[in-house]
Amino acid sequence: MTDDVVLVARLTALAAANSEPEGLALRMAQACQEFLGVDGVAITIENTSPRRTVLCATDAVAARLEDLQEVTGEGPCRDAYRLNEPIRLTLADDRRWPVFSAAAFEAVGRLTTLSFPMRPEGPPWGAISMYVAPDREPTESPATAQVLVDAIGAVLLRAPAEALVAAGDLGDDRTTVNQATGMVIVQADLSHADALAILRARAYAADQPLAAVAAQVVHRRISFKDLID
Hints:
- This protein is of the alpha+beta class.
- The protein has helices at 3-16, 24-36, 60-72, 76-83, 98-108, 142-157, 168-188, 192-206, 210-218, and strands at residues 40-45, 53-57, 87-90, 112-118, 126-132.
- α1 runs parallel beside α6 and α7 crosses α8.
- The relative contact order is 0.14.
């Protein structure tokens, strides 16, 4: 192993050592942000299933980029996981994900995102995405970034279950989305996948975060019962 690879692995281990499990994912994201010199980082798991979960985001921009991938059902993080390879995207110069790219550019402006699959022991089980301003680049190479991402994946994979629960607002958001999905299933007699798709479509049409639309459903400000009336 090269010196920088050893340093990355040691940095990740040190960031996880002697700390309570709660908040581990966020500490890993912050370590990644600092080491790679990027502006923001998010960690996701189960990227191709309806249970896709954002474990943490270091700032509002990273959180918004992940939410837009949730709403549109497309984006670089999802494909990094699906294809098991790093993906780079500059908003809005890329047409691979036209709906996501346009929505993200409108929401956060011109940024460069980099998404890497977390694959410490074989197939990917999550992904780490990061972004930088258009006039900047990460301070480390993509190869070093991938090693760091895999090392973080190894730490999280061996962590207690509570370490993988999204903390704070992100955890609350996931609970709200799950509750709203269940309510839409009952209201409109839909499958779980179709109910979630309805919520995502409403969020996209209203240009709102998925959690915001879910909260409106949970608090009965909107209903989808008329879909079957």
